[in-house]
Amino acid sequence: MNSVMTLLKSHRSIRKFTEKPLAVGMLEQLVSAAQGASSSNHVQAYSIIRVTDPENRAKLMALSGDQVYIQQAAEFLVFCADMKRNTEAAARTGIEPTMGMTEQLLVSTIDTALVAQNLTIAAESEGLGVVYIGGVRNNPEAISELLRLPEHVYPVFGMCLGYPDQDPDVKPRLPLATVLKQDYYDAQHDPVLIEQYDSEMERYYQARTGGNKSSNWSQSMAPMFSGKLRPHMRDFLISQGFEMK
Known about the structure:
This protein is an alpha+beta fold. It contains 11 helices and 4 strands; from the N terminus they run ααβααβααβαβαααα.
């Protein structure tokens, strides 16, 4: 493997950070590098909110599940899917923009995820660590008000960024054969592979927690499918102009 592939395979979520700040201008360099991400039709439908105000950080922490590293990390970013610029650009050409299409929601969300992952890779190449914060979708309306997000913009996730104060093991990924298919979707061997993977994940959790957690990948999927996960999101997205027509 070359150095880039080694870096990609070494990713860990970091939830403890030192007090060391980023050097002046480093965040701007990271975002500039992140902008090199692929973008559907070059729409670049994202905005990144850098939250530096301590009071707002505290509010965001409370609204996102009380994850303390939101306040502790050197930087906290909120990645937003943003169709506002694109709508206004289209309107300047003299057309009446059609809004609320499901494809617009998909494109802006995918663009946001791609630029965030580029930023993650750039940050890790500089010795920084990150953790994504999906908890911003717990209270997206309140967070949108706090960040003054206009119509056609919504918060997809947050990101804590800083110098790591921990060195966790890399979490095992699914077996390659379960995600890489050839010519057509063939899952006949997946049950056996997933069973083996569950055993691997159980050993990982046991080692990471000193024997205090007994779980596996399949068990970790249960909460996502045992009830309605963030049922408020559909109405919120519609209220922000993402009608999913």
